[in-house]
Amino acid sequence: MTAKSLFLCGFSEFQKTLADLEMPAFRAKQVRDWIFRKFVFSFDEMTNLSLPDREKLKKAFPKILPPVEKYLQDRDGTSKVVVKLGDGELIEAVAIPDEDSLTFCLSTQVGCAVGCVFCRTGEMGFKRNLSSDEIVLQVMLLVKRTGKKPTNIVFMGMGEPFFNRAALFEAIDVLTDPQGLGLATRRITISTSGVIEGIAELMDRPGEVNLAVSLHAADNATRTSLVPLNKRYPVAKLREAIAAYGERTSRRVTLEVVLLKNFNDQVQDAMNLVSFCEGLLVHVNIVRFNHFPGSPYDPSNEKDEKEFRKILKKAGVAVTVRKSRGQEILAACGQLAGKSDDQEKK
Ligand code: SAH
Ligand code: SF4
Question: 151 and 21 share a domain?
């Protein structure tokens, strides 16, 4: 039995493992075809393998995928998978289909230490980092569920991805391995609450992974009140990191702004944001606040949101509004909390 999960074995390591088990050389490609092209996750269903080889594989890799605690399906097509990890912790991953895309939203930690005041994950505090395997497993479980490869991956589930960089980057390497799922780096987006070391590390990595920064406010007082991490990485430093990233990569950074009624949605807030954006290669994505049980915050009202957008547009800042998906099953941004008792809609 091997300690390593099948997904984390690169192709050559997998070939070697199978050779050690005295299987013919072509088996490795057959097995990977079943998994990564046909999305079959049980050795018993791999009908072109001999029975003795299936048995050997079952012993070597007893669980290709962990058991799923729960699948939830929203009426808008969004589905959420809740997985119980080896130590009993629960994590969530979400599949969001759209007209011509399928986006998987992944978690990188159980809980989160950053503690943004409007985020349900932040409320639960930090429990632990996920391993690279646990990150990749979320994708494979959603592939199994939807029967499709995602067109996009966003690290916008539970946790601060840049506080778990080693596992995050290893998982990205596995997901983009042409002999595995072969996803394109430019279809992957990491969303950070502003961890500067992570931004610096990402810009030095090969590939074209996209960066989104959860800015929410462009002045220190407001931002610190929403994202406590701002004390460690204040607005000016964060801006420098985004500028350096843009210069190095020529890739446009998304600035995410969750608009909360009377907290960060006023004219002055929009003007601060305009100043922040000046000279940067960025676009602003306005995110409607997703309410969750017990939250004291409200989404910005339509009039204020419209005015906010107008100020940005007038100043030449590109701005989009993110559609909220999966709200009924608490699968939308900031609603994930690793609970299996969330409302079930079938
Ligand atoms: N920790 C990372 C990534 C996960 S959060 C980050 O903060 O960027 C993904 C996105 O959801 C972030 O932009 C975050 O600000 C946003 N978010 C958190 N809580 C939310 C809520 N209740 N409603 C809407 N968006 C929320
Ligand atoms: Fe953590 Fe992101 Fe939630 Fe903030 S918004 S608490 S960084 S998961």
Answer: no
